[in-house]
Amino acid sequence: MLTAEENRTLTEAGPGTPMGNLLRRYWHPVAAVKELDDNPTKRIRLLSEDLALYRDLSGTYGLVDLRCGHRHSFLSEGMVEDCGIRCYRHGWLYDETGQCLDQPLEEKPFAGEVRIKAYKVATKAGLVWAYLGPEPSPLVPDWEPFTWEDGLVQIVFTLLPCNWFQCQENSIDPADLEWLHEGINDSLDQQDERGPPPPLPPEVEMDFDEFEYGFIYRRAPREDAIDAEDWTVGRTSIWPNGVFSGTKQSCHFEWNVPMDDTHTLNVAWFIDRPAPGNSPLPEEQRYQHWYAPTTDEKTGRWLTSHLLNRKFVIWLNQGTVVDRTKEHLMESDKGLVMMRTKVFAQVDLVADGGEPKATIRDPRVNRALSLPMTGQRLTDRSIEPDDGGRTPISSEDGFPYVAGQPPEAEALYRQVIASWQTAGTD
Question: pTM of the entire structure?
Answer without folding.
Answer: 0.91
